[in-house]
Design brief:
By secondary structure, the protein is of the alpha/beta class. 41% of the residues lie in helices and 24% in strands. The chain is built from 5 helices and 7 strands. Strands 4, 5, 6 and 7 form a 4-stranded mixed beta sheet that branches. Strands 1-2-3 form a 3-stranded mixed beta sheet, covered by helices on one side. It starts with a helix and ends with a strand.
């Protein structure tokens, strides 16, 4: 009897604590479609600093593009975009980067070179860093956003200093204040 009473009170306590969570849950259907798609893509579990996902919304059609290191991420992005309310069709133009050990070595070296430099460390913070390092057969592309032109230049200089890199394309965008 005493054990049943404990279980019942524990279940009741959990239910009481869970009610505010359900009541406070936000309804994403009121947000614009591009914002909902962006949120869902950002929540993908394998999306990291070495991937670059982009999309364009045209009516009910979502066009996915970018480069990813994991083939599963390509299919997950498509499946996730299809599940967003209001999306009728998804065109998946995401490129899967070659599974090259040399490219992975360059990715790690680029990460250390850019984010290991004191003033650039802040761009590595968060679940999705604001600078993405794309390596395709020894060619590096920097994608994302930085706060100022100086940080963009530092990232490009640091990326160019990594041995074994054929070229560096600095496509970082400066946030306008």
């Amino acid at each position: 009897m005493r054990g049943t009473l404990k279980k019942l009170s524990l279940t009741l306590a959990c239910a009481v604590l869970a009610v505010p969570t359900f009541l406070g849950a936000k309804d994403n259907s009121s947000k614009p479609l591009p914002e909902r798609v962006r949120h869902e893509l950002a929540m993908l579990p394998y999306y990291n600093v070495f991937d670059d996902l982009g999309f364009k919304v045209d009516g009910g059609t979502v066009y996915l593009f970018g480069d990813v290191t994991n083939p599963v991420l390509k299919t997950d992005a498509e499946r996730t975009a299809k599940r967003v309310e209001g999306v009728q069709q998804v065109v998946n133009n995401i490129n899967v980067l070659p599974l090259s050990p040399m490219d992975w070595q360059i990715r790690r070296a680029e990460y250390r070179a850019i984010f290991g430099y004191g003033p650039m460390y802040r761009y590595a913070m968060g679940s999705i860093p604001s600078i993405h390092i794309i390596v395709n057969n020894g060619r590096v592309t920097l994608e994302g956003v930085v706060d100022n032109q100086g940080d963009k230049n530092i990232a490009g200089i640091r990326a160019n200093g990594v041995p074994g890199v054929f070229s560096v394309k600095n496509d970082l965008q400066v946030v306008k204040s």
